[in-house]
Structure formats: structure tokens, C-alpha cells
Write the C-alpha cells for this entry.
Amino acid sequence: MQTQAASRANANLVQSLGVDGRILTMLVVLAVVWTVFQILTLGQPGQFLSPQNLWNLSVQTAVVGIMVGGMVMVIVTRQIDLSVGSILGFSGMIMALIQTVPPLGWGGNWILALLAGLLLGALIGAFQGYWVAYWAVPAFVVTLAGLLIFRNATFIVASGRTIGPLNDNFKVLGGGLNGSIGEFWTWVVGLVVMAYIVYQALTNRSRRIKNGLPVRPVWAEAVVNGILLALTLAFVLVMNAFPYPGTNIPRGMPVPVLITLVVLFALNWVALNTRFGRYVFAIGGNPEAALLAGINVKRILVAVFALMGMLAALAGAVQAARLNFVTNSMGNLLELDVIAAAVIGGTALAGGSGTIVGAALGALLMSSLRSGMVLMGMPTEWQNVVLGAVLLAAVIWNTVYLRNRR
Amino acid sequence: MTPLVEMHNISLRFGGNQALDNVSVNLYPGEVVGLLGHNGAGKSTLIKVLSGAYRADSGQIRVNGQEVQIRTPQDAQAQGIETIYQTLALADNLDAVANVFLGREKVRGVMLDEDIMELEARKTLDRLRVKIPSLRLPVAQMSGGQRQTVAIGRAIYFKARCLIMDEPTAALGPEETQKVHQLIKALKAEGVGIFLISHDLHDVFDLADRITVMKNGRLVGTVYTQDVTHDDVLGMIIGGVMPKNVRPADQPAPRA
């Protein structure tokens, strides 16, 4: 009885906070994992919660983080994309070839390379989406074919060579030595985000009150937005606490991390505030209803796959820039990390349910586990066993959560 | 008087199956036409042609006397034809507000105008007098009656001139059924024309001014409700025969 009352009180608390229970769980799990790793690495020179490790962790999360929001949309529409690792590799290779191999290979055309790569990724995605949407070929098969084709096309276009080194300006995308925005701009970004959080909270609330709609209690508003502000501030402080080697000049936020945050923010905004986002979820919830409501389901599916392809290409640019050389195995098996991050973040493979924020936290949880296990010197085989177990646990928890909600 | 909707000689074939064979029906403003027939008689197919979900192979559709092309659900909606499907056609993962406005969202610029949609949805659903405590819960978490209300609210919010209701009370309890009956009468009084598909003869005799019966994709005939008995209608449904000595019924029923 006591526990039942307590769990009801908990549910009420979560409800009045107006936050998805699964996202709250993710945050708690992340906090626990970080704390445990910090304790386990206390005696070492590189502690888990040191600015250096957190800074590296953010860069390591970037590539999956850029793609995971797109994967959420794909999975929400009841589809899957197994080809993102291959699209990443292929478009990364094309971008490397454009900027290094004559006649195109001159210093200034890294922008052309980037744009061509993004366009290529979007076209590949749209091509795969076309077969899925207009010919009803299962996405699993279409993108499995894409995985094979583009992985090996990567080898073919470069004749198996490793291509590089890449243009110095292009390499900024990877977050290497010149790839951070510095202390000042990190503060600017942080303050803009904080101002936006406050502005959003105030205008939303006053508009809903003006329209006579229910609002969260003031304390809930304060708690949720307070936590968001604190997290933003902590992020800025950590990014500015890691200096360039041999100096005390802070690096600030790495460019790939900035790209990831912009992508995730944009996707989350689109998913929640536009017709396109609404239709993505409607198609996942009930494709027939979406059709009968006059939604152009096929076109939306093609757009979702094209978006996924473009994000894979963007991730390919970041990965290539980070490595400086593109090999024909770049991005191999990365589709599994992206799908796992989306699923750990609460995206249901049955479709219709998932959040960009949850998936971003899923990606962060995965890279945190990997980074922590590396710090502890755990063998790769055991790292993968742990990650697999976490994936299974997350799916089970998600299933239970969705069942209890009905 | 010009019919609100006229479907003339509609035919549709699915592979080897003649789903609709030269079917003609009409509907006048402010009347309810009951559409009856066995499963597979072609009622739902006919209705889906009118609502834009299927396209007929041949035949014409006229709205207020004007021939129109209905190729998509939007075309039907643009003509003021709204459909409440038997399956309700709700996206279960979305909330009531999103479902009422699905496909026709209110936007400011590119941004969904959630506040306006929530206010309007609340107003519309209140009119149906079924209590829905939160419009922001996924409809999967609602009762059958509440879900039905959302589906009906979606049709009436957009000021239907012609409403198609496919088994609107099949999933409802007696009290909720009564509310749907009241609603149908209220809409009728406002001049809305309603096609009512139902298995329940009592429902149809209670509400319909005329009854159209189909069998094996063909029209058996249309009669005035006041001219026939339950047995007559059963004879039409099962035997496909018209009762003797009934008036032709392609005009609205004379007001009693």
C-alpha cells in the first residue's frame, strides 16, 4: 500500500513537471553511470569527470549524435536505415577526393566538397526512400542493399587507397587542434541558449495563460528550466576548462559538438513544431489514418530518408575531418551504434514513439559507457558485451513503460 | 430540389472482383440516408469513393449539381464531405488536438499553432458532451466513447455539408449511442446531409429518412423509411428484392 501510494505520488510529481518519464529516467541513469565511473577512476591520472575526458567524450558523441535524430524519425515512421554507416563512408570519401585529387584538388574548394557530399547523402537517402515509399519494398532490404553497395563503392572510387591529408579549413569540422570555437564564443553560445530557455519559458507561459489554457505550476516551471540553465552553464564551464597543450588558453566548444547541438536542436524543433514533424509521428502511429487525413505519406517517407542520408553525410564530413585521412572502412558498423542510441533513448521500433532529446541522451549514454570502460582498461570484447546488455535492458524497460502507460 | 451529393453509375473493380456495379445514390441537405447491406455488399467501398480514399473506374459525382473530381481525401474535404470511418482512423500515439486537426493543422508561419488548435478542439468536443479530461493525452489512452468523440469532432469542426458515418455506434455503450443519436439529429436540423452505414436496423429506422440497400456490389434500391417494415428491409438485404408497392424514393422524404 505504502509503495503504491508512493509511486502514485511520484507519477503525479513527474506529471506536474510536464517531462517525459523516459527522459527523466535517462538523465538519472546518466548521472549514476558518470558517478560510478568517476569513483572507479578516482585513483587514475585521467579521471572520468575531468574536463579533458568530458571534452573528449563530447567529441566522441558527435558523429553518432548528428545522425541519431534522423534515425529517430526513420524509426518513428516504422522504417529502418541500415545504410547510414556506408553512406557516411562513401560521402566522406567523395568529399576527401574532391578536395585532394586533381583537377578539383585545390586548397579552397573544401566548401564545394562539403556541399557536394551533403547533396550526395541526401540523394542516396531519397533514392532508397523512393523504393520504400513508392514500391513498398521493405526498408530493411533496401538499406541492407545500400549498406553493401555504398560500403564497396567507397573502396571502388578510391581504388582501395586511403585519401588525405585533408584541407586545413575542412579539418576544423573535426574538432582537432584548430577545431574549437574558443572561450569567448563558447560563452556567447551558452548565454544565447540560456536567454532562449528563459524567453521560451516566459512567453509560452504568458501566451497559454492569455488563451486560458492550463499551465504547469510555477515551481515545476522553475525546477525544469532551472535544471536546463544549470546544465547549460555546467557545459560551458567544462568546455572552457580544457586548455590547449602546454598553455592555459581554453579550447572552448569543439566545432563538431556545436554542429551536433545545432542539428539536434533543429530536428527537435521540426519534430515538435511543424506539420512535417507531426506527420512523421502520425504515419508511425497509424499509416492508414495518415493517408485518409490527406497526408502525402509517400513524399514524407522519401523526405525522412533523404534527411537521414544528408545527416549521415554530415557525420561523414566530421569523421573525415577528425581523422584527416579517409579509409574505405570509415563508418563501418556505425549504423548499429546509431540505431542502438535511438532505441536506448526510448524510440520504439514498432513506430510512432520516440524523442530526439531521448535519443541524444541515448547516444551520450553509449559513448559515456565506452569512454568509461576504456579509461578502466576494459578489453573491447567486454565493452561490447556491456553495451549489448545495456541495449537489451533499455528495450525491455521501454516496452514495460509503454505497456504500463496504456 | 438539387441533391447535395449525387453519385451516378459508379463502378469499381478490384482485380477480378466487381466491387461496385453501376451504383447510383443521392443525398439531400438535412436528411439521413441509411446505407445497408451485408459485409462485402459494397457499402464501405462506395463510401470510400465519395471520401476520396478510392477512385471509381467510371461514373460521376455531383455536389450541388456540379460535377466534381474526387481523387484524394483533400478533394472530398474541399467539397465539404467529411468521413467518420468505422476504424475511426485516429493516430493512437497523438493527442486529441493533433487528431482533430490531422492533415489540416493551424499554423503561424511554419510553426503549428498549438494554442489555437487546443482551444478550438476543446470548443468542438464540448459540444459533443462526452467528457474528455485531458486533450493532451495520446488517444490510445482514451475510452471507446472518447475516441469516437474525437473522430466525430474532427468531422464536424470543419463544417461538413455532407457527413459519412460508418458504423458510428458499433463500439459504444447505450448512453454514448444515445449521444451520437442526438448529435445526428442536431446536425440534420442544421441542414447537414448524412450517409449512415449501420448493421443495426433499429439505429437506421430511428434516424434515417430513406434507406438504400446494396447487395454484391449492386444497388437493390432506395425506399422511404416510413413506407417499409423491418422485414421488408431484411428482404432487400438478404434476398435482394424490392418490397411491392413502394414509392420510388430518389427525392427527399416528405416531412411528416
